[in-house]
Amino acid sequence: MIEQQTKPLVPAERVQRFAPGETLVCLAPPPFRTIAAERAAGGSGDFWQRFGALHQIEPEKAIVIGDFGLGSDSPIILDYSRNAADPRVLRLRWSGNGPETNTEWVEGARNFDHFAELLGLSGGIALREPRKNVRATIFVAIIGPDGDEDYRSVQLWFARWGDRVRIEKDCSSDPDFLCDVEGPPEAIAEIPERMLCSSRWSNEPAG
After folding, report:
1. Of 7, 43, 84, 177, whose CB count within 10 A is highest?
2. Which residue, 56, 65, 64, is CA-closest to 36?
3. pLDDT of residue 179
4. Beta pairing, strands 134-141 & 176-183
5. Which of 30, 44, 46 is nearest to 78 (CA)?
């Protein structure tokens, strides 16, 4: 996400369609975490408790997918509390100063497809230079301790990159997810190592 500070993926005018007054969006790579998981990890200190407007959301059903850059303290989340299959995209908006400071969650897009449309990401994130695709085999054990969250992260990854990523073969069998994919190096690099496995497909160069 730090690289996006100087090399933004989304033009400022597109960002303002989603969040008036903002000029930069930084999109988080997988694995995505819920606000509940972020709080449990403890890396954000008391930010969520003090400023997260937690009474307006369900932290266990809110996945952080980005923010508005360093120092913004304004996360962007997928809110699954109302619809587990089609989450809203919310952003944390600040108002006031000093003791009058207030935060609230506001809807920026009705769902992820609308979010991608507003930012011009439909069809995946455009790369500045064409690069040769690489291959990978993704494996998620759904019944594992992180299975549900890992599977959701994979689905968000597919949505994020759109048709820039090609599914060669889906070998999933209940309850596991197994899939051969091909895509830009930047996309494949976002897949956590624990979700990758060696296969004939992944060991062969892309055509």
Report:
1. 177
2. 64
3. 92
4. antiparallel
5. 30
Please check the confidence at residue 43 and state whether its pLDDT lies above 70. Answer: yes
Backbone dihedral angles phi then psi of residue 135, each to the nearest 5 degrees: -110, 155
89: Cβ contacts below 8 Å, ≥ 6 apart: 18, 65, 76, 77, 78, 79, 107, 108, 109, 110, 111, 112, 114, 115
Mean pLDDT of 189-203: 89
Whole-model pTM: value is 0.62
**pLDDT of 146:** 66
d(CA 143, CA 145): 7
pLDDT tens per residue across span 103-150: 999 999 999 989 999 998 865 443 333 457 889 999 988 776 666 788
User: What's the distance, Cα to Cα, between the start and end of the chain in Å?
Assistant: 30
Nearest to 68 by CA among 115, 31, 16: 16
- Sorted by where each begins, the domain ranges of the chain are 3-119, 134-203
- DSSP bridge pairs for 89: 78, 109
Q: What is the pLDDT of residue 173?
A: 76
- The C-alpha R_g of the chain, in whole angstroms, comes to 18
By the 8 A CB rule, do 89 and 76 touch? yes
Residues in the chain: 207
- Decide: helix, strand or coil at residue 14: helix
| Residue 38 pLDDT greater than 50, yes or no | yes
